[in-house]
Design goal:
single chain; 241 residues; mainly alpha; Growth Hormone, Chain: A; two-stranded antiparallel sheet; 9 helices; 2% strand; disordered N terminus; transmembrane; transmembrane helix
């Protein structure tokens, strides 16, 4: 693959479908983990937390409302960091931000597993919110198809759109590919949630370590691409950025 090829013809490793499927599995895992083991808060996305925040305000429970500002603020910080860091990282090092982020995520997950169950839930919540926000903002398109790797709402919407388009144009390869991908993302998200909720019964906080397996697979593949297969494409920016 040559750097002279147009950006349209190139899909980087961080844009491959299997990378997004693994990340979506991890996203579902995180959501079920924080809700089951770390305080009943969804840290992979923030819509539910905003609803709970507004309910607490409506009920006059001011301290309860402030509690939800913790994960929401952490998520906001994560999106800001993931917007600021990719450029400087790519210019200074022969490593993409996408790869570095997964390495950071692995380290965070490893450390979270050592936190005692008696520790304040906010520690895990802030950490998971940060990495979920950065993951969502970093991995945006899978082979040109806009994707979210930490929540389901958009995939469900896109699946509905694709189904209608498929009935209208049954021979469309693009529509079929989009429909299949969004369906697969929903399925793996549920699988991640099922696994996390099951394991939390037996391993509690240490359940988070199971996420290290898919994260390690992703990290090795991205690192190999950065250092070997895609060295000549180092200046290319993933689609959607």
């Amino acid at each position: 693959m040559k750097a002279s090829e147009t950006n349209r013809e190139i899909y980087l490793e961080c844009e491959k479908r299997h990378i997004f499927l693994l990340l979506m599995f991890v996203g579902g895992f995180y959501g079920a983990y924080t809700y089951s083991c770390r305080g009943g808060v969804f840290c992979n996305a923030q819509t539910a937390n905003f609803v709970l925040f507004s309910m607490k305000l409506g009920q006059g429970e001011w301290l309860g409302a402030l509690y939800y500002l913790i994960p929401m603020s952490a998520y906001l910080l994560g999106s800001m960091l993931s917007e600021l860091l990719p450029g400087p990282i790519r210019r200074r090092y022969m490593l993409r931000w996408d790869t570095l982020l997964i390495g950071i995520e692995i380290l965070v997950v490893l450390l979270l597993g050592f936190i005692p169950d008696s520790a304040p839930f906010q520690i895990s919540q802030v950490a998971v919110n940060l990495i979920c926000s950065m993951q969502y903002n970093t991995f945006r398109q899978a082979r040109g198809i806009p994707m979210a790797t930490t929540f389901c709402t958009n995939h469900l919407r896109q699946l509905g759109i694709s189904l209608v388009k498929y009935f209208r144009h049954p021979g469309s390869v693009l529509v079929h590919r989009r429909m299949t991908m969004h369906s697969a993302m929903l399925v793996v998200f549920v699988m991640g949630g099922i696994l996390a909720s099951f394991l939390c019964r037996y391993f509690s906080g240490r359940t988070i370590w199971m996420a290290l397996i898919p994260l390690a697979v992703i990290f090795v593949q991205l690192l190999y691409a950065d250092r070997v297969r895609e060295v000549s494409l180092h200046d290319f920016v993933p689609r959607g950025h």
